[in-house]
Amino acid sequence: MAHVPPTPQEVAELESTADRIRAAMETVVTGRPELVRHTVAVLLAEGHLLIEDVPGVGKTTLAKALAHAIDGTVGRIQFTPDLLPSDLTGVAIYRQAEQRFEFHPGPVFANVVIGDEINRASPKTQSALLECMQEAQVTVDGVSHALPRPFLVVATQNPVEMEGTYALPEAQRDRFMARLHVGYPEADAELEMLDRQEEADPLTGLHPVTDVADLERLIGVARRLHASPAVKRYIVALADATRADSMLRLGASPRASIQLLRAAKSLAAMRGRDHVLPDDVQELAVPVLAHRLVPSTDARLSGHSVVETLREVLAATPIPTGAAARG
Asked: Does the residue 130 lie in any domain?
Protein backbone atom coordinates (compact mmCIF):
# COMPACT_ATOMS: atom_id res chain seq x y z
CA MET A 1 0.00 0.00 0.00
CA ALA A 2 1.33 3.44 -0.97
CA HIS A 3 2.13 5.82 1.85
CA VAL A 4 -0.59 8.50 2.10
CA PRO A 5 0.73 11.54 3.96
CA PRO A 6 -1.69 13.35 6.28
CA THR A 7 -3.42 16.47 5.02
CA PRO A 8 -2.73 19.86 6.63
CA GLN A 9 -6.23 19.72 8.12
CA GLU A 10 -5.53 16.34 9.75
CA VAL A 11 -2.26 17.59 11.23
CA ALA A 12 -3.98 20.74 12.52
CA GLU A 13 -6.73 18.65 14.12
CA LEU A 14 -4.18 16.39 15.80
CA GLU A 15 -2.23 19.40 17.10
CA SER A 16 -5.42 20.99 18.44
CA THR A 17 -6.62 17.80 20.14
CA ALA A 18 -3.20 17.17 21.69
CA ASP A 19 -3.14 20.73 23.01
CA ARG A 20 -6.56 20.22 24.63
CA ILE A 21 -5.47 16.94 26.23
CA ARG A 22 -2.32 18.57 27.58
CA ALA A 23 -4.24 21.58 28.91
CA ALA A 24 -6.74 19.33 30.66
CA MET A 25 -4.00 17.23 32.24
CA GLU A 26 -2.06 20.30 33.36
CA THR A 27 -5.02 21.40 35.49
CA VAL A 28 -4.17 18.37 37.64
CA VAL A 29 -0.45 17.74 36.98
CA THR A 30 1.06 21.07 37.95
CA GLY A 31 4.42 22.43 36.80
CA ARG A 32 5.52 19.50 34.62
CA PRO A 33 4.82 20.45 30.97
CA GLU A 34 7.55 18.20 29.54
CA LEU A 35 6.21 15.18 31.43
CA VAL A 36 2.68 15.83 30.13
CA ARG A 37 3.93 16.44 26.57
CA HIS A 38 5.82 13.14 26.48
CA THR A 39 2.85 11.28 27.97
CA VAL A 40 0.55 12.54 25.21
CA ALA A 41 3.18 11.69 22.58
CA VAL A 42 3.24 8.08 23.80
CA LEU A 43 -0.57 8.00 23.73
CA LEU A 44 -0.68 9.19 20.10
CA ALA A 45 2.07 6.72 19.16
CA GLU A 46 -0.07 3.91 20.64
CA GLY A 47 2.71 2.89 22.99
CA HIS A 48 2.80 1.95 26.65
CA LEU A 49 4.19 4.10 29.41
CA LEU A 50 6.29 3.27 32.46
CA ILE A 51 6.41 5.97 35.14
CA GLU A 52 9.09 5.55 37.78
CA ASP A 53 9.65 7.54 40.94
CA VAL A 54 9.30 7.50 44.70
CA PRO A 55 5.80 7.32 46.26
CA GLY A 56 3.70 10.45 46.55
CA VAL A 57 4.93 12.51 43.58
CA GLY A 58 1.85 12.05 41.39
CA LYS A 59 2.50 8.97 39.21
CA THR A 60 -1.03 7.59 39.55
CA THR A 61 -2.55 11.08 39.29
CA LEU A 62 -0.84 11.55 35.92
CA ALA A 63 -2.29 8.27 34.63
CA LYS A 64 -5.78 9.10 35.91
CA ALA A 65 -5.66 12.58 34.38
CA LEU A 66 -4.84 11.08 30.99
CA ALA A 67 -7.70 8.58 31.24
CA HIS A 68 -10.19 11.29 32.25
CA ALA A 69 -9.12 13.59 29.40
CA ILE A 70 -9.75 11.06 26.60
CA ASP A 71 -13.06 9.72 27.97
CA GLY A 72 -11.90 6.13 27.65
CA THR A 73 -12.70 3.13 29.79
CA VAL A 74 -10.28 2.70 32.67
CA GLY A 75 -8.94 -0.44 34.29
CA ARG A 76 -7.10 -0.12 37.58
CA ILE A 77 -4.75 -2.81 38.91
CA GLN A 78 -3.01 -2.52 42.24
CA PHE A 79 -0.05 -4.86 41.95
CA THR A 80 0.75 -6.85 45.08
CA PRO A 81 2.96 -9.90 45.72
CA ASP A 82 -0.08 -12.25 45.84
CA LEU A 83 -1.68 -10.97 42.60
CA LEU A 84 -2.31 -13.76 40.08
CA PRO A 85 -2.15 -13.50 36.25
CA SER A 86 -5.88 -14.32 36.07
CA ASP A 87 -6.57 -11.28 38.26
CA LEU A 88 -5.37 -9.20 35.31
CA THR A 89 -6.63 -11.07 32.28
CA GLY A 90 -9.90 -12.57 33.54
CA VAL A 91 -11.13 -16.15 33.87
CA ALA A 92 -13.39 -18.62 32.07
CA ILE A 93 -16.13 -19.91 34.39
CA TYR A 94 -18.05 -23.09 33.57
CA ARG A 95 -21.83 -22.69 33.55
CA GLN A 96 -23.20 -26.09 34.56
CA ALA A 97 -26.78 -25.34 33.51
CA GLU A 98 -25.73 -24.26 30.02
CA GLN A 99 -22.77 -26.68 29.78
CA ARG A 100 -20.43 -24.01 28.48
CA PHE A 101 -17.62 -21.74 29.61
CA GLU A 102 -18.29 -18.04 30.03
CA PHE A 103 -15.40 -15.59 29.95
CA HIS A 104 -15.28 -12.90 32.63
CA PRO A 105 -12.84 -10.19 31.47
CA GLY A 106 -10.28 -8.74 33.85
CA PRO A 107 -9.26 -5.10 34.31
CA VAL A 108 -6.95 -5.15 31.25
CA PHE A 109 -10.07 -4.89 29.09
CA ALA A 110 -10.04 -1.09 29.04
CA ASN A 111 -8.68 1.72 26.88
CA VAL A 112 -6.34 2.90 29.63
CA VAL A 113 -5.01 0.34 32.09
CA ILE A 114 -3.41 1.87 35.17
CA GLY A 115 -1.00 -0.57 36.77
CA ASP A 116 -0.01 0.76 40.18
CA GLU A 117 3.39 -0.33 41.53
CA ILE A 118 3.93 -2.99 38.87
CA ASN A 119 7.23 -4.03 40.40
CA ARG A 120 5.56 -5.17 43.63
CA ALA A 121 4.03 -8.15 41.80
CA SER A 122 5.85 -11.41 41.19
CA PRO A 123 7.67 -11.89 37.86
CA LYS A 124 5.01 -14.44 36.82
CA THR A 125 2.26 -11.85 37.15
CA GLN A 126 4.36 -9.14 35.52
CA SER A 127 4.84 -11.40 32.50
CA ALA A 128 1.06 -11.79 32.13
CA LEU A 129 1.05 -8.27 30.70
CA LEU A 130 3.43 -9.19 27.86
CA GLU A 131 0.83 -10.57 25.46
CA CYS A 132 -1.60 -7.80 26.34
CA MET A 133 0.92 -5.06 25.61
CA GLN A 134 2.42 -6.57 22.46
CA GLU A 135 -0.55 -8.26 20.80
CA ALA A 136 -3.49 -6.24 22.21
CA GLN A 137 -5.20 -9.50 23.10
CA VAL A 138 -5.59 -11.97 25.95
CA THR A 139 -5.56 -15.76 25.64
CA VAL A 140 -7.43 -17.69 28.33
CA ASP A 141 -7.83 -21.48 28.09
CA GLY A 142 -6.67 -21.40 24.48
CA VAL A 143 -9.20 -18.76 23.38
CA SER A 144 -8.00 -15.30 22.31
CA HIS A 145 -9.96 -12.18 23.26
CA ALA A 146 -9.20 -8.83 21.59
CA LEU A 147 -8.62 -5.83 23.82
CA PRO A 148 -10.35 -2.49 23.14
CA ARG A 149 -8.62 0.03 20.89
CA PRO A 150 -6.89 2.29 21.54
CA PHE A 151 -5.13 0.36 24.29
CA LEU A 152 -2.59 1.96 26.59
CA VAL A 153 -0.92 0.56 29.68
CA VAL A 154 0.32 3.22 32.10
CA ALA A 155 2.35 1.39 34.72
CA THR A 156 3.92 3.02 37.75
CA GLN A 157 6.83 1.60 39.66
CA ASN A 158 8.88 2.54 42.66
CA PRO A 159 12.68 2.59 42.45
CA VAL A 160 14.03 -0.97 42.63
CA GLU A 161 16.01 -0.17 45.76
CA MET A 162 12.78 0.12 47.75
CA GLU A 163 11.66 -2.75 49.98
CA GLY A 164 9.33 -5.34 48.48
CA THR A 165 10.03 -4.65 44.81
CA TYR A 166 10.94 -7.00 41.94
CA ALA A 167 12.98 -5.59 39.08
CA LEU A 168 11.16 -5.75 35.75
CA PRO A 169 12.90 -8.18 33.36
CA GLU A 170 14.45 -6.79 30.15
CA ALA A 171 11.74 -8.38 27.97
CA GLN A 172 9.02 -6.56 29.90
CA ARG A 173 10.81 -3.21 29.94
CA ASP A 174 11.24 -3.44 26.18
CA ARG A 175 7.43 -3.51 25.76
CA PHE A 176 7.12 -0.02 27.23
CA MET A 177 7.59 2.68 24.63
CA ALA A 178 8.92 5.17 27.17
CA ARG A 179 9.89 5.50 30.80
CA LEU A 180 9.29 8.85 32.44
CA HIS A 181 10.33 10.24 35.81
CA VAL A 182 7.92 12.54 37.61
CA GLY A 183 10.33 14.12 40.07
CA TYR A 184 9.60 16.64 42.80
CA PRO A 185 7.81 19.83 41.71
CA GLU A 186 9.31 23.28 41.97
CA ALA A 187 8.31 25.22 45.09
CA ASP A 188 5.85 27.47 43.23
CA ALA A 189 4.24 24.49 41.48
CA GLU A 190 3.91 22.64 44.78
CA LEU A 191 2.33 25.70 46.38
CA GLU A 192 -0.18 25.89 43.49
CA MET A 193 -0.88 22.19 44.04
CA LEU A 194 -1.67 22.83 47.69
CA ASP A 195 -4.09 25.61 46.75
CA ARG A 196 -5.87 23.47 44.15
CA GLN A 197 -6.20 20.40 46.33
CA GLU A 198 -6.90 22.11 49.63
CA GLU A 199 -10.66 21.53 49.44
CA ALA A 200 -11.28 19.16 46.50
CA ASP A 201 -9.63 16.64 44.20
CA PRO A 202 -8.95 18.43 40.87
CA LEU A 203 -9.60 15.16 39.01
CA THR A 204 -13.30 15.55 39.77
CA GLY A 205 -13.37 18.72 37.68
CA LEU A 206 -11.43 17.31 34.73
CA HIS A 207 -13.79 16.81 31.79
CA PRO A 208 -13.05 14.81 28.62
CA VAL A 209 -11.74 16.84 25.68
CA THR A 210 -11.94 14.05 23.07
CA ASP A 211 -13.20 10.48 22.73
CA VAL A 212 -11.63 7.16 21.83
CA ALA A 213 -13.04 7.11 18.27
CA ASP A 214 -11.37 10.44 17.42
CA LEU A 215 -8.25 9.39 19.27
CA GLU A 216 -7.91 6.17 17.28
CA ARG A 217 -8.27 8.12 14.04
CA LEU A 218 -5.61 10.64 15.11
CA ILE A 219 -3.25 7.80 16.04
CA GLY A 220 -3.53 6.73 12.41
CA VAL A 221 -2.74 10.30 11.30
CA ALA A 222 0.44 10.34 13.42
CA ARG A 223 1.57 7.03 11.92
CA ARG A 224 1.38 8.54 8.41
CA LEU A 225 3.72 11.44 9.12
CA HIS A 226 6.78 11.64 6.88
CA ALA A 227 10.19 10.63 8.16
CA SER A 228 13.03 11.18 5.71
CA PRO A 229 15.60 8.44 4.98
CA ALA A 230 18.19 10.64 6.73
CA VAL A 231 16.13 10.75 9.95
CA LYS A 232 15.58 6.99 9.83
CA ARG A 233 19.33 6.43 9.32
CA TYR A 234 19.92 8.72 12.32
CA ILE A 235 17.66 6.57 14.52
CA VAL A 236 19.40 3.38 13.34
CA ALA A 237 22.81 4.98 13.97
CA LEU A 238 21.82 5.84 17.54
CA ALA A 239 20.60 2.30 18.20
CA ASP A 240 23.69 0.79 16.61
CA ALA A 241 25.96 3.00 18.71
CA THR A 242 24.37 1.72 21.92
CA ARG A 243 25.05 -1.87 20.81
CA ALA A 244 28.73 -1.12 20.26
CA ASP A 245 29.32 1.00 23.38
CA SER A 246 31.64 -0.65 25.90
CA MET A 247 29.69 0.90 28.78
CA LEU A 248 26.57 -1.07 27.83
CA ARG A 249 26.05 -4.83 28.10
CA LEU A 250 22.74 -4.65 26.23
CA GLY A 251 22.01 -2.06 23.57
CA ALA A 252 18.76 -0.87 21.98
CA SER A 253 16.67 -3.50 20.19
CA PRO A 254 15.12 -3.08 16.72
CA ARG A 255 11.79 -2.65 18.55
CA ALA A 256 13.34 0.34 20.30
CA SER A 257 14.20 1.93 16.93
CA ILE A 258 10.64 1.41 15.67
CA GLN A 259 9.12 2.88 18.81
CA LEU A 260 11.48 5.86 18.79
CA LEU A 261 10.35 6.65 15.23
CA ARG A 262 6.67 6.34 16.15
CA ALA A 263 7.06 8.54 19.21
CA ALA A 264 9.00 11.13 17.21
CA LYS A 265 6.21 11.21 14.59
CA SER A 266 3.64 11.90 17.32
CA LEU A 267 5.75 14.67 18.82
CA ALA A 268 6.24 16.25 15.39
CA ALA A 269 2.48 16.17 14.74
CA MET A 270 1.83 17.72 18.15
CA ARG A 271 4.05 20.58 17.00
CA GLY A 272 1.97 21.06 13.85
CA ARG A 273 4.44 19.52 11.40
CA ASP A 274 3.84 16.82 8.80
CA HIS A 275 7.43 15.56 8.98
CA VAL A 276 9.89 14.44 11.65
CA LEU A 277 13.01 16.41 12.50
CA PRO A 278 16.14 15.21 14.35
CA ASP A 279 15.06 17.49 17.22
CA ASP A 280 12.02 15.25 17.81
CA VAL A 281 14.23 12.17 17.93
CA GLN A 282 16.73 13.81 20.28
CA GLU A 283 14.06 14.96 22.74
CA LEU A 284 12.61 11.45 23.05
CA ALA A 285 15.82 9.41 22.84
CA VAL A 286 16.36 9.18 26.60
CA PRO A 287 12.71 8.42 27.55
CA VAL A 288 12.40 5.80 24.79
CA LEU A 289 15.83 4.14 24.91
CA ALA A 290 17.32 4.44 28.41
CA HIS A 291 15.14 1.87 30.19
CA ARG A 292 15.99 -0.77 27.57
CA LEU A 293 19.74 -0.50 28.05
CA VAL A 294 21.77 -2.55 30.53
CA PRO A 295 25.08 -1.14 31.83
CA SER A 296 28.26 -3.15 31.64
CA THR A 297 30.10 -4.29 34.76
CA ASP A 298 32.67 -1.53 34.25
CA ALA A 299 29.92 1.08 34.07
CA ARG A 300 28.32 -0.14 37.28
CA LEU A 301 31.63 -0.22 39.13
CA SER A 302 32.51 3.29 37.98
CA GLY A 303 29.05 4.67 38.77
CA HIS A 304 28.46 5.64 35.12
CA SER A 305 24.70 5.69 34.56
CA VAL A 306 22.90 4.47 31.46
CA VAL A 307 21.49 7.97 30.88
CA GLU A 308 25.00 9.45 30.92
CA THR A 309 26.14 6.88 28.37
CA LEU A 310 23.13 7.56 26.16
CA ARG A 311 23.74 11.31 26.26
CA GLU A 312 27.33 10.67 25.18
CA VAL A 313 26.04 8.55 22.29
CA LEU A 314 23.69 11.37 21.29
CA ALA A 315 26.52 13.90 21.38
CA ALA A 316 28.81 11.69 19.27
CA THR A 317 26.30 10.66 16.57
CA PRO A 318 26.22 12.98 13.51
CA ILE A 319 22.90 14.80 13.13
CA PRO A 320 21.32 15.13 9.67
CA THR A 321 20.74 18.75 8.70
CA GLY A 322 19.01 20.84 6.07
CA ALA A 323 16.96 19.35 3.26
CA ALA A 324 18.14 15.80 4.04
CA ALA A 325 16.54 15.93 7.49
CA ARG A 326 13.23 17.16 6.08
CA GLY A 327 13.33 14.67 3.21
From this structure: no
Per the structure, the count of domains in the chain is 1
Looking at residue 79, its pLDDT comes to 87
Q: What percent of the chain has pLDDT over 90?
A: 44
For β-strands 74-78 and 248-250, DSSP reports them as: unpaired
Q: Considering the domain boundaries, does residue 19 fall inside one? A: no
E strands within the chain? 49-52, 74-78, 90-95, 100-105, 112-116, 137-140, 143-146, 152-157, 178-181, 248-250, 294-295
Which pTM was predicted?
Answer: 0.89
Under DSSP, the state recorded for 269 is H
Please check whether residue 66 lies inside any domain of the structure.
Answer: no
| Residue 320 belongs to domain with CATH number | 1.10.8.80
Task: Identify residue 44 by its one-letter amino acid code.
Answer: L
For the stretch 108-117, pLDDT in tens is 999 888 888 8
Other beta carbons within 10 Å of 312: 14
Answer yes or no: is 128 within a domain: no
For 109, which DSSP code?
S
pLDDT, tens digit (0-9, with 9 covering 90-100), for 141-182: 778 888 988 889 988 887 655 555 667 777 788 889 999 987
Range of the domain at 298: 226-327
Reference 256, options 275, 268, 278, 241; nearest CA is 241
Confirm if 151 and 230 have CB atoms less than 8 A apart.
no
